[in-house]
Amino acid sequence: MEIAAKIGRKSIRLVHWFIDLFILIIIFLLIAFSCYAIWDSGQVHNIASHRQYEMYKPTVAGDTTSFEDLQTINPDVFAWLTVYGTNIDYPVVQGQDNKIYVNTNARGRHALSGAIFLDFRSAPDFSDFNSILYGHHMENRVMFGEIALFSDRGYFEARRYGMLYFDGKEHGLEFFAFVHTDAYDTTVFKTAITEPDEQQAYLDLLLQTAVHTRNYVPVTVSDRIVLLSTCSPNSTNGRDILIGRIIAEVHDDPFFVDTPVSTPIIPVIDEISGLWTQLDMWARISIAAVISLLILLLIISIIKRRKRR
């Protein structure tokens, strides 16, 4: 009976030991994964920042050398969009369809953040009555992450103007409406509207369904309007759209702060998959070896502690 009791106690201690070890390993792996996930998420947002592209921005003086450099890297780049008072200050691309730049950035590289892109059905010279620009809603106010903020009346009123560069020169943008709609609303996401009566009906629809408008901005079918569309964080399949018109006058940016433009540091990671898939075999083996060593040391520490009892 005594031998059986000893065996039972040892068995219980062994089971407890394995349970403790299993829990510690799980906790360790969760902590390691969480740290990596936080780091990798920060890299994704860093890659999507407008500061990664500011060196390419066309200057007011008309020097487009840097912008042309970006076009050399990716010929699909054809314009530049700036919304004053926000971080929306990006090159604009247009692909052969609306899928390419969902996960491809303005440099033509795979990226979860994608790019700001013009609907493939719209004219690249913005000569259509309405042109639709798309961009991801992202945290940290990158890409079109600030479009949703225009749902606040004060935020909307404070940010009336922007700039759209295309055809070798800057054009003004005047924002006159903010619309919240559904991703499948074909009456809003409609292009190539050529008939004057259809253009008027489309404009009336936007103004009637808008959350905010500037009634003192006289928008007519003679204007060329631009829709900045992104996913809404407040509803499933929702879309937030900031709508402006192209104007001749380029207004000064009241939020402008003169800061030196520095060459961006491009993180050495795969812009869609993160660090792990970009590492070569030996780097992965080294990381796995370090993790295994830490686990082994943890096991040894537990065994020694158990023996002291």
Description:
This protein has 309 residues and is an alpha+beta fold. The protein is 35% helix and 20% strand. It has an 8-stranded mixed beta barrel. Strand 5 (161-166) and strand 6 form a beta hairpin. The protein is elongated, with a radius of gyration of 27 Å. The chain starts with a helix and ends with a helix. Residues 261-277 have low confidence and may be disordered.
Topology:
Layout: H1 2-48, H2 65-73, E1 77-83, E2 89-93, E3 116-118, E4 130-134, H3 153-158, E5 161-166, E6 169-182, H4 196-209, E7 210-213, E8 225-231, E9 238-247, H5 275-278, H6 281-308
Parallel strand pairs: 2-3, 4-8
Antiparallel strand pairs: 1-2, 1-5, 3-4, 5-6, 6-7, 6-9, 8-9
Order of helices and strands: HHEEEEHEEHEEEHH
Strand order of the largest sheet: 1-2-3-4-8-9-6-5
**What proportion strand?**
15-25%
Work out the helicity level.
25-40%
Instruction: Give Rg in angstroms.
Output: 27 Å
What structural class do the secondary elements suggest? Answer: alpha+beta
pLDDT below 50 for ≥5 consecutive residues: which ranges?
A: 261-277
Largest sheet: 8 strands, mixed, barrel
**Global morphology:** elongated
DSSP E strands, number:
9
Counting DSSP H or I runs of 4 or more residues, the number of helices is 6
Distance between the termini: 23 Å
Task: Write down the overall mean pLDDT.
Answer: 81
